[in-house]
Design a protein that fits this description.
heterotrimer; A alpha+beta; B mainly alpha; C mainly alpha; C: two-stranded antiparallel ribbon; about 45% helix; elongated
């Protein structure tokens, strides 16, 4: 309904930022995962945010193509013949920055939702 | 003749009584007019403040809301006075003469 | 890499143009259409559109290459209030100008929203909305009193 369009927009903002948060959480959790079911080390995930009408949506979740980190550790079970281990291309500090941005985005959209709900509520009260 | 003297007296009395009534009516009409003017002034002021709010010119929120209250109250007063006047008039017309 | 901050910086295929809001079919002469209250009703229209637009900015606060939008509320009101309120001619503002903001500075990801600013603007909009609503309510109740001649029954 067009009446609630503004609320839907803020809801989409909350959803998108929430999903982004979760993706970042997955990245952080797998910062040291050297072996995934595909046999490869964990690859950092990115969210593709896209405009959707007035609001926003997560168009896709893709892989970060940047190279894995190489660490010399011959004793590691996943070390290659030269003794290097490929670690995920995840940098905890960057992930923390992302997490803060995603959380902040979520909160701001929640506030926007609340403000608009107030406006609608006040309008309804007028009819009484 | 004494009759002329009495006649003279009788004619004077109504005009003596009429002057205070006229004065009362004048005073009342003036205060009513004053009330009307006040309602109009308050309404104009309120409209101006509303315009300022919407157009972005400086206006204090409390100024605006107080003006709204004032305009409304003076209008209600006018309405009350008008109703009382109407009642009084209707009562007068109902009086058997 | 660092500046991408967890999002792809691919340019969205269809960057959406701002929506059109058509006011033409509203607000002709009515019983309640006194000068003051028509302005208030229109203000509510504009404010509710502005709120949606600002909410949209906040939803897209992290979207790469997104340019913020806004509605110049006061300018629109000035245009609306300078029209004659009798008759339908001269209704200057038919389409609400939802403008893309090309002036605000771009961040590294091509986005030019400022979340704090959007929220401040939205808060202001909500407050203006509430004030206007209260003023309109007062107008309507006064009209009601005039109609019922102050009788409560």
């Amino acid at each position: 309904m067009a009446v609630f369009q503004g609320l839907e927009v803020s809801a989409s903002g909350m959803s998108a930022h929430r999903l982004w948060q979760e993706v970042v959480a997955v990245n952080i959790a797998n910062a040291e995962t050297t072996r995934t079911p595909s046999g490869e080390p964990f690859r950092r995930k990115l969210v593709v945010l896209m405009q959707d009408g007035l609001g926003v949506k997560v168009a896709a979740i893709t892989d970060d193509p940047s190279p894995f980190r190489l660490v010399y550790d011959p004793s590691h079970p996943d070390a290659d013949p030269n003794g290097y281990v490929r670690l995920p291309n995840v940098h905890p500090v960057l992930e923390m920055v992302d997490l803060m941005a995603a959380t902040r985005g979520y909160e701001l959209n929640a506030q926007a939702f609340s403000l608009q709900r107030q406006m609608l509520q006040q309008t309804l009260d007028l009819l009484r | 003749m004494p009759i002329e003297a009495i006649k003279g007296l009788a004619l004077e009395q109504p005009s003596e009584a009429a002057r205070p009534t006229e004065q009362v009516v004048q005073v009342f009409a003036e205060s009513l007019r004053g009330l009307l003017r006040e309602v109009e002034t308050n309404d104009e002021r309120l409209t101006e403040l509303k315009r300022r709010l919407l157009v972005g010119e400086p206006v204090e929120l409390h100024e605006l809301l107080l003006a709204a209250e004032k305009a409304n109250l003076s209008f209600q007063l006018l309405l009350s006075v008008r109703n009382r006047l109407l009642e009084a008039y209707q009562e007068l017309t109902r009086m058997p003469l | 890499m660092a500046k991408v901050a967890g999002k792809s910086d691919k340019i969205p295929i269809d960057a959406e143009p701002p929506p059109r809001y058509d006011l033409s079919e509203t607000k002709s002469r009515t019983v309640t259409g006194t000068m003051a209250s028509v302005g208030l009703e229109r203000a509510l229209d504009v404010l509710s559109v502005r709120a949606k637009v600002l909410a949209g900015n906040l939803a897209n606060a992290s979207t790469p290459n997104f340019l913020r939008r806004d509605v110049p509320f006061h300018a629109v009101m000035r245009a609306m209030l300078s029209e004659p309120t009798t008759g339908d001619e001269g209704r200057g503002v038919r389409i609400l100008p939802v403008q893309v903001d090309f002036a605000s500075p771009l961040r590294a990801d091509g986005n030019n929203t400022s979340p704090e600013r959007e929220l401040a603007a939205l808060t202001e909009t909500a407050l203006l909305y509430r004030t206007t609503l209260q003023l309109l309510a007062k107008d309507l109740s006064q009209l009601r009193a005039a109609i019922t001649e102050g009788r409560r029954s």
